[in-house]
């Protein structure tokens, strides 16, 4: 009798575990993208160790293999050759940029966690006033490209926009953090922390700074990121070979830059024909 009772307890526990997993799977993530029947969650994670040898020297296939090992069971979409790589100013082998910090570090610079002290409030007010002054001084910077391309001038960053959701501010901060990094195909694929980024590595890093992505995605994978259609603040455009985005109306793209170290923030807009528009729900 005791043996039958123990066996029944084991069977009930196993059924409960399966029910919990099914419930968690049902509520995870957002609407499935084109060509997908299930959704996957995009939760923020901590910094990942740099693996430039896997992401760049091994090429895109090696980067995809690295993601498959890190996320067993997750379907991956291999990135094909970027048709706009030539206009992204690929970095020569002699270029060695410092490695980026984790995306969360860039996003954390916008808002301090927890209730602020009086000193922190005064500091934040001073920062806000400085940002407002910088925004007023930088209006023309947004509109005037550097010679030789469409990159904005100045130090390559744009002011953090006011009166937008905090997550959008963090995405801008993340994009600013790597705005002048060199372009290398496969850069930023195996890890967010790298010293060069391609188109999808750049967009992935910025989205991760806002907590909207948990692991780097290829251009093809970004075709099913978030929800279909353009967003109010953030619109990601992607196809199998290239991706870029608009954040608060400003174009962020590796193609069309003015040089190896020129900004990814570009003046004007581009033809979106052939690209899938995606946004994060509510943004």
Q: What is the typical, i.e. mean, pLDDT?
A: 74
Number of helices: 9
Low-confidence stretches: 1-72
CATH topology: endopeptidase fold (from Nostoc punctiforme)
Overall 3D form: globular
* Gyration radius over CA: 21 Å
Write the element-wise H/E pattern from the N-terminal end onward: HHHHHHHHHEEEEEE
Strand runs, count: 6
Structural class: alpha+beta
Order of strands across the main sheet? 1-6-2-3-4-5
Strand fraction: 5-15%
CA(first)-CA(last) distance:
59 Å
Oligomer: single chain
Largest sheet: 6 strands, antiparallel
Q: How many domains, as an integer? A: 1
Helix content: 25-40%
CATH A-level architecture: Alpha-Beta Complex
Mind explaining what this structure looks like?
Mean pLDDT is 74; it is low at 1-72. Helices cover 36% and strands 7% of the residues. Strand 2 (234-238) and strand 3 form a beta hairpin. The chain has a single domain (42-279), classed as Alpha-Beta Complex (endopeptidase fold (from Nostoc punctiforme)). It has helices at 2-27, 52-57, 59-70, 103-108, 118-137, 139-143, 166-177, 199-209, 219-222, and strands spanning 227-228, 234-238, 243-247, 250-252, 265-266, 276-279. It has a six-stranded antiparallel β-sheet. The protein is an alpha+beta fold and 283 residues long. Helix 7 (166-177) crosses helix 8.
């Amino acid at each position: 009798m005791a043996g039958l009772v123990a066996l029944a307890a084991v069977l009930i526990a196993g059924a409960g575990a399966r029910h919990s997993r099914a419930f968690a799977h049902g509520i995870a993530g957002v609407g499935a993208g084109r060509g997908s029947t299930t959704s996957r969650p995009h939760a923020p994670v901590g910094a990942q160790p740099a693996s430039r040898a896997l992401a760049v020297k091994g090429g895109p296939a090696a980067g995809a293999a690295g993601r498959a090992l890190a996320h067993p069971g997750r379907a991956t979409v291999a990135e094909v050759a970027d048709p706009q790589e030539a206009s992204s100013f690929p970095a020569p082998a002699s270029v060695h940029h410092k490695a980026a910090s984790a995306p969360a570090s860039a996003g954390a610079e916008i808002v301090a966690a927890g209730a602020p002290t009086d000193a922190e409030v005064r500091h934040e007010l001073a920062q806000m006033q400085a940002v407002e002054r910088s925004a007023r001084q930088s209006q023309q910077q947004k509109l005037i490209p550097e010679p030789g391309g469409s990159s904005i001038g100045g130090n390559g960053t744009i002011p953090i926009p006011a009166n937008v959701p905090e997550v959008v501010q963090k995405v801008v901060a993340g994009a600013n953090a790597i705005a002048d990094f060199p372009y290398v195909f496969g850069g930023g694929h195996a890890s967010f922390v790298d010293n060069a980024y391609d188109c999808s590595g750049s967009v992935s890093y910025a989205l991760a700074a806002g907590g909207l992505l948990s692991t780097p995605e290829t251009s093809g994978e970004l075709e099913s990121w978030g929800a279909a259609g353009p967003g109010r603040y953030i619109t990601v455009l992607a196809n199998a070979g290239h991706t870029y985005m608009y954040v608060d109306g400003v174009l962020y793209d590796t193609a069309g830059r003015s040089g190896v170290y020129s900004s990814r923030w570009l003046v004007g807009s581009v033809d979106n024909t052939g690209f899938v528009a995606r946004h994060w729900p509510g943004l």
